[in-house]
Amino acid sequence: MCPISGHGISAGHSPEGNRMLIGSFITHNTDTADSREKNGSCLPYFVIKDFTIITSLFANLSAKYEQDYQPLMQNQLFIGDRIFTAFVTCGNNISVTQLNGGISKGLWSAKITVGIDASFGHSSARMMRQNVEQPYASTFITLAPKFTGKFTCWFSTDYRLTYTNNRYQVDAVKAIHSALRQNLSVTFLPTDQWHIAFGAEHYYTRFSTDQTASITFIDASVRWLLSKRIDLAFVASNLLDETDYRYTSFGSLSESFYSFNIRPRNIIIKMQIKI
User: Fold this and answer.
1) Cystine design at 229: which of 75, 245, 258, 274 (Cβ 3.0–4.6 Å)?
2) How far is the C-alpha of 250 from the C-alpha of 253, rounded, in Å?
3) How far apart, in whole angstroms, are the C-alpha atoms of residue 27 and residue 47?
4) Quick check: 233 and 222 in contact, CB under 8 A?
5) How far apart (Å, rounded) are the C-alpha atoms in residues 207 and 257?
């Protein structure tokens, strides 16, 4: 099939979501002149939406660049042990660049799917502290590999990992924050009457001060279909009995303390009867 290409003029933002196309689909859009005059921004973007390279291999790629002008600039004032924010009439140019992409491949007659999604973003602007202008920049990178497998009609699993790294810089002050999240689910269907599932979640956070926070949750459930009308289920949550999660985040201007109370280990028995 021949590749499809298009060009258009629009005042909207880049479309979201994925489309399944054979061949490649490339679009280029820019805002109209009237839109740029209203908000002082120019939003060109290029998008390459899902295209098939070889059998069961899918990929997507999108890029966005935004340039915006704001007539007001944020000014942080330090008075005693407090920080006050004001806005002054001073032009501020904001630049935002973002790249998103992903690739996945089906294996073993599409019973197994492996892939990875990735994102990159960078923004820069200027801010004021004590009436002095300072450059500000923020950069993030996200990597998200994934694995899904249905090995037999009675056994399947799904695993997803998301890693995010954020970097901030205000003048000469830098801060780095990274986070890792993992999700694993396993499902067994030994017979039509039994449904057994296990799930695990892991969260890990690392701050610029080298402080770390980590927590893991494990859940399980068993469902038994006694008949077409009676359904009995056992659900166990937070098997590791994690009851508290807390950490402190240090920013360039502040210190934030976070504390979460978590429901302790619990088991729920449910019975459903259809009349």
Assistant:
1) 274
2) 8
3) 6
4) yes
5) 13
Structure tokens at 181: 């999240």
Which residue blocks in the chain are alpha helix, DSSP H?
33-39
Give the number of residues written for the chain: 275
Closest C-alpha to 196, from 159, 228, 230, 221: 221
Rounded Cα distance, 131 and 238, in Å: 50
